[in-house]
Amino acid sequence: MENYVIEMLNIRKEFPGIVANDNITLQVKKGEIHALLGENGAGKSTLMNVLFGLYQPEKGEIRVDGKQVEINDPNVANRLGIGMVHQHFMLIDTFTVAQNIVLGSEPKKGLKIDMKKAVREVQELSDRYGLQVDATAKISDISVGMQQRVEILKTLYRGANVVILDEPTAVLTPQEIKELIVILRTLVKEGKSIILITHKLKEIMEVCDRCTVIRKGQGIGTVEVSETNPNDLASLMVGREIHFSTDKKAAEPKETILSIEGLTVQDSRHVDMVKSLDLDIRAGEIVGIAGVDGNGQTELIEAITGLRKKSAGKVTLKNQDITNMPVRAITESGVGHIPQDRHKLGLVLDFSVGENIVLQTYYKKTYAKGGILSFKRIFDKAKALIKEYDVRTPSHLTKARALSGGNQQKAIIGREIDRNPDLLIAAQPTRGLDVGAIEFIHKRLIEQRDQGKAVLLVSFELDEILNVSDRIAVMFDGKIIATVDPKETNEQELGLLMAGSKLEKEGAHN
Amino acid sequence: ACGSGGSSEQGGSDNSFKTAMVTDTGGIDDKSFNQSAWEGLTQFGEDNGLKEDAGYSYLQSNSASDYVTNLNRLVQSNTDLIFGIGFKLAEDIGTVADQHKDTHFAIVDSVVDKENVASIVFEEQQGSFLAGVAAAMKSESGKIGFVGGEESELIKKFEAGYVAGAKSVNKDIEVDVQYAGSFGAPDKGKLIASNMYNSGVDVIYHSAGGTGNGVFAQAKDLKNNDPEGNYWVIGVDRDQYEEGQIGDNNVTLTSMLKAVDVAVADIAQQSKDGKFPGGEIVSYGLKDDGINIAETNKDAYSEDIKAAVNEWKQKLIDGDVTAPSTDAELQEYQDSL
Amino acid sequence: MLDILYSLIPQTLFFAAPLIFTALGGVYSERSGVINIGLEGLMVIGAFAAVTFNLLYANALGTMTPWISLLVAMVASAVFSLLLAIPAITFRADQTVTGVAINMLALGFGVFMIKQIFNKGQTEFISEPIYTKDVPGLVDIPVIGEMFFNNMYITSYIAIAFSFVAWYVLFKTPFGLRIRAVGEHPMAADTNGIKVYTTRYIAVIISGALAGIGGGVFAMTISLNFSVSTIAGQGFMAIAAVIFGKWNPLGAMGAALFFGFAQSLSVVGSSIPLLENVPQVYLLIAPYVLTILALAGFIGRSVAPKASGVPYVKGSR
Amino acid sequence: MFSSTKFNFIIPIISVVLGLAAGAIIMLIFGYNPILGYQALWNGVFDSGFFMSETVNRITPYILTGLAIAFAFRTGLFNIGAEGQVLVGWIASVWVGTAIDAPTVIHLPLALLAAAAAGAFWAFIPGILKAKLGVHEVIVSIMMNYVALHLTNYLIRDVMTDNSESTEQVKQTASLTNDFLIGLTGSRLHLGFIVALFMVLVMWVILERTKLGYELKAVGYNQHASNYAGMKVGRNIVISMVISGLFAGLAGAMQGLGSFGTAFTNTAFSNLGFDGIAVALLGGNNPFGVILSASLFGFLKVGALNMSTAGVPNEIIEIVIALIILFVASGFIIRWALLQLKKGERK
Ligand SMILES: Nc1ncnc2c1ncn2[C@@H]1O[C@H](COP(=O)(O)OP(=O)(O)OP(=O)(O)O)[C@@H](O)[C@H]1O
Ligand SMILES: Nc1ncnc2c1ncn2[C@@H]1O[C@H](COP(=O)(O)OP(=O)(O)OP(=O)(O)O)[C@@H](O)[C@H]1O
Ligand SMILES: [Mg+2]
Ligand SMILES: [Mg+2]
């Protein structure tokens, strides 16, 4: 008999009209990092929510340390030493780090929360595991990476022995991922067990001991990571071969499409985030912006697309000055934008997929005559795009909210590409998506380039930047500090550049 | 009418007289004219051996939209005489009266010029005049107050009469006049009263419905802290002596009585006797006891006040003086002093 | 000038007291994520309960009557608030709709019961209202004493004291932290082991209790009786105070005091010679216009608790 | 299994039944006869053509205030200011109706337009303050209600008349009443219901068929995404409030040009606006649903007046209406109960 901390045996969980978990078994050994792998919508989060007591399974059995338990509430999970870091953070923006962590088990002094003690305890815990959080900072003021560490602290504060992390790396920069991996190792050393959900096979190979694969709600099996490789994992998960390195022809850059000169942009706190930045993008090339989150990428994109005011500089698109144009005029002059935050910017979640397909074009003559919308035309277009971009949805009338992240992203990409823009801006287009979906999206971006479009790709994934871009611009502290050829660089070099060190080989220029 | 069961039986014996009233949004227990009207109708019913619901009844209105519906309901159940209580019903009485020329109507507090409508009005200015006399007699500070609900023509009659009465006694008396802008804002009433008493006013006459509650609340509170102090309220429409009671004291100096009950019973009787004053304006004033002044508070309403009031009352009845009922008339009256 | 303050301040305080209590209730409810449009109705129940109890038991209880009546009002509204809590929390009903229904229900119920108990549509005046008192000692302080401690309703002080207590509880105690968590991000609270439903129930019941006190105070200091129009819009003003005060107990208190101040100013204004010839209507609308100007001028954006108005369904996102 | 559209019908029906049942129980407890009470309620409306037409008159403004609130809700706003918008619309329609001489084809539309414009303006203020300064629309609307109440009273007394409580009747050319209908029913049944039904269509078309509606809904659901898509968020908030206020203003015109033909001073709010909140939500914020819920409201309110003939205090009906709303709002639990019943049957 193996010594398992967690055993989930033959779990079945149904949602109206769908079996999210069908007879899945997951066994986690003490002190291991156990990967949970599956496509978008395979049922990973559901399975973990069952373990954490948020969902009740229809069938199956859960054992903790060999004892059968019934977990019908997160409280019970906490008591059993199970902690979970959710895919979407469970943090209260307006609270401080310490408040978030002690919430529910607050230290008291009389009637009052003993905030001093709380801060001290949190700080101690943070130092012990090398988490480096500032206990008194407000959540809304700290980086995503730090927020994640707060989530981890929350589980530790409650004495978790088993920590579930649902796609922790999807939102992190490479730097932060490295730090996270160190943290995970520390945790294991302290005797904790970890369940890690991720779509990044490299990470599994790097830190995990074993990996359980699920596909379409069914358990495919568990493998020793040391005995497998990324290709095998991918095919296990998808059920077919996956090509990792995207094959593409060499770029044939033509005329300049986008030209940015001396652009300066402030964030909402009036701090300069983009500082006198210059950048050109030409037709038929993909320019990748590499950089650690928070170096002005978001502000740069928002400024180009007109979502944010520019404090200085000039933006030209096909020789037309678009610097001070409103959003719609910029969109119309030939800019497509796949936004970083698809829920906030990309979609109206309560609109149907069909309605979302025309979010940028609903007012055009094709769809609106005399102010009246032609839903026939709108839905025809929607159906066509759904088909072309393989958006998996019950129908074009389904609310966008009900689609999985990958399919939501496909719908956005379809919408933006279909407008035939000269410049396509893709911000983190594959965040949180499974390898199948990533492959699909990369293909589309390259296809655009081949059709002579200019593509601006912003991503924190170095893999993605290296594979897809024709030219890499490294952004640091609001400036492009280097431009490199992906074929002549590697992750180490990029990593250094992103940390701000100057390129020695040549002067940085465009 | 809210006894038990028994819907109004249609018809009954053909020659039996049937009368009813439609309240405005106040309802029959508004401690004001609706209540008074209902008391009058009940009195009339009892005097004539009629049964409630069959012989006399009322319909309650919850909003202005209900008037027409209620009036028509009564018409359709063959009511001989229908009262509309309050000027708010004037418009609708007019309309319905036009459509049902065989039915008799009466409107209280307004004039509707139709053959089958009797208009009942009161000379509130006369009673208010006397209230003013009493206030001026009672006031030691030389400052008295008036709190009105809304600044309407009707309430102006109260104000003008009151001011005239007070000035008749003491030419230099200061009258602080304020309107709350609502008949249902006791908080505002209390604010105004508080402000008036603070500034030295010692008698307040209110004509402000529920807003007047706040005036009483303030007077009673001051009285409670300072039982010897002069904080008087003059009530309106009915005897508001009860409302003024606080322990062994009572802040209600007197009340301007408006005998809607008398008027309603009177018109009903006339109608039953075949003498319905259709098309006429029937005015009730001091001389026919339609308007009066309460003398319940024996302690406060002293003999000399009583004497003075009675003296002016006689003058008003005899027509020696005419109480003003508008700003213009008041101005004229004051100039004549 | 000082004269004006002598009357403005006590007036502001008595006018504001019912609004403060009720608005504090609103703050608690909305901080926990339940919009409470039903404050008006809860005040109605408070006024109804206080007046009815006062009338029925004044003989037996004497000068204690108003205070016990206030407790009764508190309990009655707290119980009544369950009619908001159960649909809005457990049955996932739209909170705005439920609140509107509560307002209708309370008024219908109050008047119906008055008719059953007293056989008429509005009650007599209560014989044991709450009276103002001087605060011994403090009243003798020059200037200040006259302004703040002379002839004051103790309920006004209680209201202000409650505001500080409410603030303390909300921002300094575990319970307050939990209420706020539940109103901002119920799922996060849930995963932290906080009972979302229970917390919301407690917050709504607190709001009922406080609105009940508000209604009771209104009835026993201002209207002195109960009728269909006793509470006419105070609950809505309290909602305005909640938003004006940015969902902070002290802010709500400040807003309520501001309303009281604006109202007394408009009353005082009409006796200021300068304003004597200004048409009455301007003074009548002044408090409301002033509020709008204050909001537009320097209060600006107020952001509601994030989950306010959203029923929490366990396990959904 | 029930489909969700089926639920949309079943839940209100069950709620009405439950509400009436609760009312009956209360009547029994307090010693009234519920059968007689409800009979009187029914007769109060269906006794004669007159009362039925009065009921229609009552329903008409409810439809419009219901639309006003529903429209705002659908676009992410809470227009608690319909009350004030009704008042200003009312007085504006009467003003045009009394002050101008023109043939019907011009006069009536002009009066309606004036009402719509006044209501729209009254809603514009909270709209623009929200759009420009982020001031919460609820609080400004509440204040605007009081301003409207005092202002319209003042206008009637001191501007439109010489210190009178009500204006003259609007001229026949501006009136919604119609001799034919009056002759037919003897009531003031007026053509306003046609206006109301037309506005139902207008709202439906705007929301479901137009570019504008698409934008308004998008902004209501997600301001960030709307901004990303190049929509002007602030402008849409204002437009939304304005359209909502326009509906409410027309509700005022129904009273001013139809049911009353005058404007009169008000001591308190008419409650048309506040009841409109309930009407809208009972109707699922759907324009056609609003017709049904407004009808229920009108029916109960008119019928209730007759309940005193059965000796039942008509507050009972207020209680019943409130309970119906509570039940509809708690649709989730009814749905759940129904599904349990179904399951039980199958076993
Ligand atoms: N609350 C819910 N209601 C209905 N269906 C749900 C719910 N949550 C999940 N599902 C469905 O269950 C299936 C599994 O979802 P789950 O979130 O577990 O996927 P996942 O493997 O975590 O995907 P991803 O990689 O995108 O995070 C999906 O098809 C989803 O549509
Ligand atoms: N309320 C809901 N009703 C139906 N399905 C839902 C609901 N909420 C979530 N889901 C389903 O749960 C699945 C997972 O949701 P989740 O939010 O984890 O998406 P995701 O694919 O991980 O995307 P992302 O990581 O970008 O948020 C989705 O496939 C979605 O279909
Ligand atoms: Mg997931
Ligand atoms: Mg995901």
From TrEMBL, chain A:
Family (UniProt): Belongs to the ABC transporter superfamily.
Entry annotated with the keyword Nucleotidyltransferase: no
Keywords: ATP-binding, Cell membrane, Membrane, Nucleotide-binding, Repeat, Translocase, Transport
Membrane topology qualifier: Peripheral membrane protein
Protein name as it appears in the record: Nucleoside ABC transporter ATP-binding protein
Chain segments annotated as transmembrane: none
UniProt-annotated location(s): Cell membrane
Molecular function terms from GO: ATP binding; ATP hydrolysis activity
Highest taxon of source: Bacteria
Domain named ABC transporter: residues: 6-241, 258-502
GO cellular component: plasma membrane
InterPro entries named among the record's database cross-references: AAA+_ATPase, ABC_carbohydrate_import_ATPase, ABC_transporter-like_ATP-bd, ABC_transporter-like_CS, P-loop_NTPase
Main localization of the protein described in the UniProt heading: membrane
Automatic annotation (TrEMBL), chain C:
GO cellular component: plasma membrane
Transmembrane segments annotated in the record for this chain: 12-29, 41-61, 67-88, 100-118, 152-171, 201-220, 281-299
First-listed, main subcellular location of the protein, grouped into a coarse class: membrane
Domain of life: Bacteria
InterPro entries reported for this sequence: ABC_transp_permease (IPR001851)
Location in the cell: Cell membrane
Membrane topology: Multi-pass membrane protein
KW Membrane (keyword) present: yes
UniProt name for this protein: Nucleoside ABC transporter membrane protein
Automatic annotation (TrEMBL), chain D:
Gene Ontology CC: one annotated term: plasma membrane
CDD domains: TM_PBP1_transp_TpRbsC_like
Membrane topology type: Multi-pass membrane protein
Keyword flag Transmembrane: yes
Coiled-coil intervals: none
Residue ranges crossing the lipid bilayer per the database entry: 7-32, 59-77, 84-100, 106-125, 137-156, 189-207, 237-257, 316-338
Compartmental location: Cell membrane
Sample GO molecular function, one term: transmembrane transporter activity
Keyword Glycosyltransferase: no
Alphabetic keyword roster: Cell membrane, Membrane, Transmembrane, Transmembrane helix
Name of the featured protein: Nucleoside ABC transporter membrane protein
